[in-house]
Amino acid sequence: MMRSSMLDTAIRILHVEDSPADVRLVAEYFSLTDSGQGVVELETAATLASAVNCLQRSRYDAILLDMGLPDSDGEKSIRTIFPFAERIPIIVLSGEDTVESAKNALLRGAQDYFVKGSMIGRAFAHAILLSIERYRLMADLNKQRYELLKTNEQFRNLISDSADAMLVIDQERTVRFANPAAAKLLGRAIAGLTGEPLELDLPPERSGHIEIVQPDGRTLTADVRIVDSMWNGEQAQIATFRDISLQKQAELELSRAKEQAELANRMKSEFLANMSHELRTPMNGIIGLAESLMEANLQEEEKEHASLIAQSAKKLLTVLNDILDLSKVEAGYLELENIPFAPDELIADVEASWRPMIEAKTLTFTVETSLPENCCLLGDPVRIRQILINFISNALKFTEKGAVTVKIMHQARDEGTSNLRFEVSDSGTGIAAEVKKKLFRKFAQADSSIARKYGGTGLGLAISRQLAELMGGEIGCGSQQGQGSTFWLTLDLENAPDMSFNGAEEHIAASIDRPLRILAAEDNAVNRAVIRAILMPQSHHLDFANNGIETLDAVKAINYDLVLMDVQMPEMDGLEATRRIRALDSDRANIPIIALTANSMSGDRQTYLASGMDGYVSKPIDRVELFSEIARVMAMDITEDREGASAEAGEKEQTKETETLLAKL
Fold first, then answer.
1. E-strand spans in 203-320?
2. Cα 455 to the chain's mean position, in Å?
3. What distance in Å separates the CA atoms of residue 114 and residue 101, rounded to the nearest whole number?
4. CA end-to-end span of the chain, whole Å?
5. pLDDT digit string (tens) for 475-486?
6. Is the dihedral of CA 16, 21, 22, 25 positive or negative?
7. How big is the chain by its Cα radius of gyration, in Å?
8. Closest alpha carbon to 384 in 402, 364, 357, 408
C-alpha cells in the first residue's frame, strides 16, 4: 500500500503490464509520493484476458494500460477494456513516442497517454494521480450537472476557477461561456469569445490534440476533452483544454537530440572507414614491396631490414583492420555470412597458422576437439576464426612460459542445431578480478603498462564481443591473477548437410597450367609496383591501364586472359568499365575480371559482383589470396551465372595443400 496527498479518498488502480521490471518501477514511483490520507492500491495483470477477468470481479478507480501486451495490440486492448471500464479512466503507458499513437489511443477512449520514461519517480506518480483526479472532477461535473445548473452562478464559479481552459458550447457551436484560462489560451478576451461561433476544429471523438494559433502567430498544442452537459436547460457541451506545448516541445527537442547523436555516430564511423581506406592503399605498397625485397638477392642485413619493415607494416595493418571492423559494427554495415563450414578444418587452419609462433616462444601448444565425424555447420567461419585469433594472440602475448591450449567442444541440440564452445587457455600472468570488467571495452587495457610493454589498441576483445553478439553467441573470460586465463566463445549453429571441402582445391589444381596475359587497371604508381612484384616472377605478362577508358580500349584491342580492376580511378571508375566490357558485342565481353581495391566495407563484394566482376581481393594484397582468386576465376565456366559463381568465392579458406598448388603460379 502507498499513500498520496493528492486524493482524499482511497483509490484502486489496475496496472495492465507484462514486464515485471515496469511493474516494479511503477510501484516504486507511487511509493515516493507524499504521505497523506488517500490510499493507492495497485493490482497487476500481465495479459488482456487477465485484465478483463479482474474488471469482471472487482471495481477499480483507474486503469494503467501498457500498449504492447502479449495477447493484444494497443488499440484492441482499449476497445476490449472500454466496455468494462466505461466510468473508469484508462491511462495509457506506452513506449511509442509518436503523435499518431497517442491520437489513436485517445480516440479509442483513453483518458491520458504517457510515454514510458518521459517522467520518473514522484513526478510520474503525481501525474497519474492528477490525471485520475481530473477525470473524477469531470465525472463529478457530468454527474451533478443538473444540480449545478440550478444555479448558473455556481457553475460559472466552478469552471472559472479551473486551471484548465473550459468552454461551454451549445448545439449550434456557439460559445456560451468561457473561463479566464480559456481566454488566455486562445489569446482573446472573454467578451470576444462568448456569443460567437467556435472557430476551432474540435476532436470528432470527444478527445484528442488540436493546434491553436494565437493572434500573435504562435501555435500551441492543446489536449481537449468534451463532455455533455446542460446550459440554461438546453443541451450543451463542456470542452476542456490543457496546454501541452511545453511537453511537446521537450519531446521534440529530445527527438532532435537523439537524431543528432545518431548522425554524429554515423559520421564518426564513416570517417573511420574512410580513413582506414585511405591508409590501406599506401600500406599495400609498403607490405608488397617489402615482401618483394625479401625475395630479392640482398645482403642478410638488408633482408632482415626488409623483413622488419614487412612485420611492422602488418602490425599496423592489424590495427587498421580493427578500426575498420569497429566502424562497420557501429555504423551497422557489418554483415555476417551463413555458409557451410567444417569446424575441424577451421581449427586445423588456426593451429597451422599459430603453432610455429607459439613453439618459437618455447611454449607447449595443444589442440583438443570433441567434434563428431564429418561435422558440418552453417555460420561465418571467417568471423569465428577472427575471434579465435584474438584469443590466441592475447594468450601468446601474456604467456612467457608454460602452455597454450585450444579446445573445441560440440553438443547436439534439438531441431537440427549444435552448440560449439571454443576455449583458449594459457598459463600466463592472469587477470586481476578488478580489471576483468574492462576486458571487452573498446580501447581498454588491463592497466597502463600493458600498452607500453606489449602494444595493441585494446580493440581486439571489444570487436570479438560484438561479433559474438551479432552471431547470437556469448563470450567471456575466466582468470585469476598469476594462474593464467581462459577465454571462451559459445555459439548455437544450424547443422548443414555433409559436404566435401576438397572441391576448391581440385577446382584450382585443374585451372592454370600456363602464363597469363593480364591487364591491371591501376592509376596508383606504388600499387602498380606491388602488382608487378607479385605477378612478374610467376612469368605472367602484365600490362597496365590508368583508368576505365584505357581499360576498355585495351580489352577491345588485345585478347587478355584476365583483368585486375581497381575501383576508384579517374575519368571512368572500375564499376562502369566492367559494365561496358560486359556490354561488348564480342567474346571479350566474357573476360574474367577481379576487383582489386582498398574498399572492404560490408556490401562492397556484392556490389562489385553485381556489376559483372567475377572475383574480389582487398588491398593490401595478400599473395596467396590473389593467386587463389585468379585460379578460381580462371577455372570458372564463363557460361555460369556470374553472381552465383562469385558468391561462392571466398567461402572456404585455403589449406596448405592449396597454397602449394598456387605456388606454381
1. 207-213, 219-231, 234-243
2. 30
3. 11
4. 82
5. 999 888 888 899
6. positive
7. 36
8. 408
Select from 525, 580, 521, 510 the least CA-distant residue to 551.
Answer: 521
d(CA 597, CA 610): 16
C-alpha cell at 202: 474540435
Mean pLDDT lowest among 12-26, 281-295, 504-518: 504-518
Q: Which residue has the cell 566474357?
A: 590
Q: How far apart are CA 251 and CA 242, in angstroms?
A: 17
Q: Which helix (H) or strand (E) holds 361?
A: none
Q: C-alpha cell of 638?
A: 564463363
Residue with cell 575471434: 387
The pTM for the full model equals: 0.44
Phi, psi angles (nearest 5°) of residue 12: -120, 130
Query: What local confidence, expressed as pLDDT, does residue 537 receive?
Result: 82
Cα-flanking dihedrals φ and ψ of residue 436, to 5°?
A: -60, -35
| Residues linked to residue 242 through DSSP beta bridges, in sequence order | 223
Half-sphere exposure (Cβ direction) of 437: Cα atoms closer than 13 Å: 2
Strand order in the sheet with 562-565: 541-545, 517-521, 562-565, 593-597, 615-618
User: From CA 77, how far away is CA 86, in angstroms rounded?
Assistant: 14
**Higher confidence at residue 440 or residue 423?**
423
111-149 pLDDT, tens digit each: 888 888 887 888 888 888 888 888 877 777 666 655 655
- In angstroms, how far is CA 645 from the centroid of its own chain? 30
Bridge-based pairing of strands 364-369 and 234-243 is: unpaired
Q: What gap in Å lies between CA 247 and CA 123, rounded to an integer?
A: 14
Question: What single-letter amino acid sits at 217?
Answer: G
Between the alpha carbon of residue 634 and those of residues 241, 516, 575, 591, the distances in Å are: 76, 10, 20, 9
For the stretch 521-579, pLDDT in tens is 998 888 888 888 888 888 899 999 999 999 999 999 999 999 999 988 989 999 999 99
| Nearest CA-CA partner of 567 in 517, 516, 527, 510 | 527
Question: Quick one: cell of 567?
Answer: 575501383
The mean pLDDT value of the chain amounts to 79
316 Cβ neighbours under 8 A, 6+ residues apart: 283
Is the previous residue joined to 620 through a cis bond, with omega within 30 degrees of 0?
yes
Strands 62-66 and 11-16: parallel
Crossing angle of helices 245-295 and 300-331, in 10° steps, is 160
